[in-house]
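Quick start: read one record
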Amino acid sequence: LERRALDAVVVAAHFERGGERHVYLRSALRPPLLLRSGGPTLPVGQWELPAGLIEPGEAPAHAAAREIEEELGFVLEPARFLPLGPAALPAPGIIGEVHYFFHVAVDPRTRTTPTEDGSPLERGAHVEAMPLPQLLAFCRAGHVHDEKTELALRRLAEL
């Protein structure tokens, strides 16, 4: 199977409040979880960091800026997005996709309505900002099922 775009960005948008770093997550509908043999074993709706495919010819930082506008509603210059560790291979035995990780400091007061990308998977998503320590506790407890989200949160905590 060949996709128009293969590689993706994962972005941790964060801000400080009360001496704690808060990170934005958004709800995401994941239909493949319904298609698992024996039915879904995990919730079909997942909380994830904003992420998305890098369009052909697009630089990863530009993709990160586009995804943050589509999924969270922040309009930011690509130069503001800082690398969050090295690129990673989510499932090299199955797909050649590469994930590029970024983080960006944001001002919650500048957030607007997300533009979304027109996909039903993005329509009506919920956006929440939560303290990073609480998100890491959710990861340890098994409440965050998305590996790219957990990896990025752990990397952000190490900064």
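The chain has three helices and seven strands.
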